[in-house]
Amino acid sequence: MNSAITRVRYEMLLLLLFIALSGLGCDLFTPDHYDVFIYPNKHDLTHHIYAGRYHSAEEARDVALEYMEEYPDGDYEIGKNRKGSVDVGVYEETFK
Which one of 22, 81, 82, 95 is CB 3.0 to 4.6 Å from 89, fit for a cystine? Predict the structure, then answer.
């Protein structure tokens, strides 16, 4: 009897943990994705080129660096795991 109660408590704890992580915005089942933005002129960040979505930070950085050869006075930004719409998205993290 005691082991059955322990098992139920354990399962309830796992369920609560799953609900808490889901509520915090953790998406446990979707792989990370990385969006690349190229700024042809690093002094004018109002104009950008969307260079696509990639499955790894390394792949995204490689693409960005290729664009930098075409735009030597440019800059780039990589956004990880966009939440929200294309127009008003928020990234979990941005980096170079």
Answer: 82
Element (H, E) at 89: strand 89-95
Which structural domain, as residue segments, surrounds residue 12? 1-28
Does 59 share its domain with 78? yes
The verdict on 37 and 18 lying in the same domain is: no
Q: Find the largest Cα–Cα distance for the chain.
A: 71
pLDDT in tens, 63-73: 999 999 999 99
